[in-house]
Request: fold
Amino acid sequence: MPSKKPSITIRVNEEEYQVLKEWADNEYRTVPSLVLALTKKAIDEQSKPKSQKESRNDSA
Reply:
């Protein structure tokens, strides 16, 4: 039974794919699961209130 979740297709060049592949291998993940984890992290960061984002940037 097909998933009802939305899907996204991205295209990367060979060099970018190799970087993602090595990164995923180092974390015992597949490339799609790594990209999903990175996407979720980015969404979480984007969803934080502006004041939390600014305080993280000030401490860097």
In short: Helices lie at 14-26, 31-47, 50-58. Residues 31-47 form the longest helix (17 residues). The chain has a mean pLDDT of 90. The two ends are 47 Å apart (CA to CA).
